[in-house]
Design brief:
Radius of gyration: 21 Å
CATH architecture of the largest domain: Alpha-Beta Complex
CATH superfamily of the largest domain: Aminoglycoside phosphotransferase (APH), C-terminal lobe
CATH class of the largest domain: Alpha Beta
Structural class: alpha+beta
Strand content: 5-15%
Shape: globular
Number of domains: 2
Number of helices: 10
Number of strands: 10
Strand order of the largest sheet: 1-2-3-5-4
Low-confidence stretches: none
Mean pLDDT: 95
């Protein structure tokens, strides 16, 4: 999307309709957020009034990515509903303000949310004190526990999904995505799927809100405390241990907060989580392997989008290198040491 005067004008006109009592609505500082793979975001300031009556609101516009996207089906309205429901709860989220779900204004649906202060450590380790890093880990853990202990019925989210069949839905969805985009047999990844089905544990007795993408890079921090949790694209009701397995898997990655030598160990994280949430963490290897399968398939989809010319973004081409990495991590967690071929996972199109 080109950020030209036409986009600014369409946004200004639409925002004026959302603020019927405001005088002289203006859009300033319109810019694109060069961050993330799965959605497009714009930042801007909504200005109303003038002089002593001027009011400024810093906001983020989150647009539905052009289909086919990395994460399909992509339900922008669902994200908006979750954010609205969580506002004012113990979970720190940006306030969702307005939803445009027709696509008529910018060519794609979008919603507007407040811009929350905070720093996200996606790739870089925090440049702060050792005590500060430890406090960041504690705050992140406490927020994950808060997500898993909110009253989803009281928030009006109980009907979002059947939480009891969450593990079935997860495996079925990612297996379906693998079949949809693969170019041929994938012996290693298909073996991982077989092992997951063969060793699947009983669903956690707690049915909770599940973030679905609880990586350290989706938490923003101010003064070592989580100021907001982002990216609710994969949120559902279900087994909270899927979030724990995802966090545990990514805690092994040498990037961001976990790469700092003062970061809490994953065992310390889990002990604090159990104390905060009252939920027992069990079958850790299986939940890590489930998330390794999920991430391998997401990388497979990303490589497919590049290979088929949907995107020229080199990051999607690089996704291919994550497929064998996550596949082998998952197989190792399930005790499989066989040497298995990855199959055609690298893009056929030249990068």
């Amino acid at each position: 999307m080109t950020l030209d005067s036409d986009v600014r004008g369409r946004l200004t006109g639409w925002l004026t309709g959302q603020l019927p009592d405001a005088v002289d609505v203006r859009v300033e500082g319109l810019d694109r957020v060069e961050f993330g793979h799965s959605a497009e975001m714009l930042t801007l300031t909504i200005v109303t009034g003038a002089g002593p009556d001027e009011v400024r609101r810093d906001v983020v516009v989150r647009l539905r990515p052009r289909p086919p996207a990395l994460l399909e089906p992509y339900d922008l309205a669902r994200q908006f509903t979750v954010l609205q429901a969580l506002h004012g709860s113990s979970v720190r989220v940006p306030r969702a303000m307005w939803l445009e779900d027709t696509g008529e204004v910018l060519g794609r649906p979008f919603f507007v949310m407040e811009r929350v202060a905070g720093t996200v450590y996606e790739m870089e380790a925090p440049d702060t004190s050792r005590d500060g890093v430890r406090r960041m880990c504690e705050s992140l853990t406490d927020q994950l526990a808060a997500i898993h202990t909110v009253d989803i019925a009281a928030l009006g989210l109980a009907a979002m999904d059947d939480g009891a069949d969450h593990l079935d839905r997860e495996i079925e969805h990612w297996a379906g995505e693998m079949e949809r985009v693969k170019r041929g047999p994938l012996p290693a990844l298909e073996r991982l799927l077989e092992e997951l089905n063969a060793s699947r544990p009983q669903h956690c007795s707690n049915v909770t809100l599940v973030h679905g993408d609880a990586k350290p890079g989706n938490f923003a921090f101010v003064d070592h405390e989580v100021s907001s949790v982002f990216d609710w694209e994969l949120t559902t009701a279900g087994d909270p241990l899927t979030d724990i397995g995802y966090l545990e898997l990514l805690w092994r990655m040498p990037v961001g907060i976990p790469s700092h030598d003062a970061a809490l160990s994953i065992d310390e994280i889990i002990a604090r989580y159990e104390d905060s949430s009252g939920i027992e963490v069990r079958h850790r290897e299986w939940y890590r392997a489930l998330n390794a399968f999920k991430l391998a398939v997401i990388n497979l989809v990303g490589a497919h989008l590049y290979d088929t010319g949907v995107t020229d973004d080199q990051r999607f081409a690089l996704n291919a290198y994550g497929i064998p990495l996550f596949t082998q991590m998952g197989l190792a967690d399930l005790g499989v040491s066989d040497k298995l071929d990855d199959g055609p996972v690298m893009p056929a199109r030249s990068a």
